[in-house]
Amino acid sequence: MASTPPTPNQGIMITLKYLDLFIWHWKWIGGCCFSIVLITALYTLTLEPVYIASTILRPSNVSDELANKLTMLAGRFGIPGASKKDSPQLLVLIIKSRDFIDLLAKKNFYSPKEKKWKTLPQIYGVVIENDSLLQSFELYNILKYAINAELDEITQTLTISVSANEPALAADIGNAVILELKNFTNQLSISKSHGDRLFIEARLLETHRQLKEAENKATTFREKNRKIGNSPQRQLDLDRLLREVKIQEEIFITLTREHEVAKIQENKQAYLLDVLERPRPPVVKSAPLRTKMVIMSGIIAFFIGIGSIIFFEYARHQRLHEILLTSRSISLALSKTKRIPIINKYL
Question: What is the structure's pLDDT at 82?
Fold first, then answer.
């Protein structure tokens, strides 16, 4: 048989019963709230402040050569078929990569609070003596969350947020991320053009040296042979020296043009990151939010106190119900043995 729902009067009586129960145990509820709030407040005092500095980047000037390299790089990160439009997504993966974080770990940052230069392992408290591999691994696990990169698919802008225990450190690390990201991507994009420029520069220096030697030889020959006269051999030697000077001049001019073209080409192939907003030292800390944590702990403690009272009251009623059922069972068993007078005497 289905149980009938309580009438409005019965519902009011049940509510009043529980209100009376809560009032009767107000000390327990107050004690739960006070103790949990106190523990939470003391715990928040042990937490270091967290400041977040943010920067906004927009990639541009992705050449075909760089697109091919990004495609190969994407394969390493598990992104098949990447193209130019996927370059911002690859930047997120580069920032989260182990190689990139190892580059950041080599830099030093000045702490205004402690007035000294510190490395990233010192800033994030993962200095492990005599075990650089373990230190690098622990630092990587921390920076994966301390340096956050989010991509806006619509605007194709990249927002990088850096967390640190000092405002200036958060901003400095953010600027270091921008610098290393530019260097990392430029190494991918201009490696061939950079090699061509260096080769032309070396040839230009060598040609300049050979041109000076040829000019010096021609000058020395003229000084020693001011009166060539009718000597065909000396005239032939002079023409040969002047011809060598002319050849070196033409080579030098050609290499100078090629050098300028190589520099322009290298600049065109450079992977440009437009910094729309540079990281600045935050004025307000992002965590811990002590007031919010204390208020939330008080609310949770209040409901814990009420819930525990309801639980214990329910357990008490269940226990009484079991005792009653047991007594009835015993009474029924004894009545069948015709000992009802004795039962009436002791019940």
Answer: 47
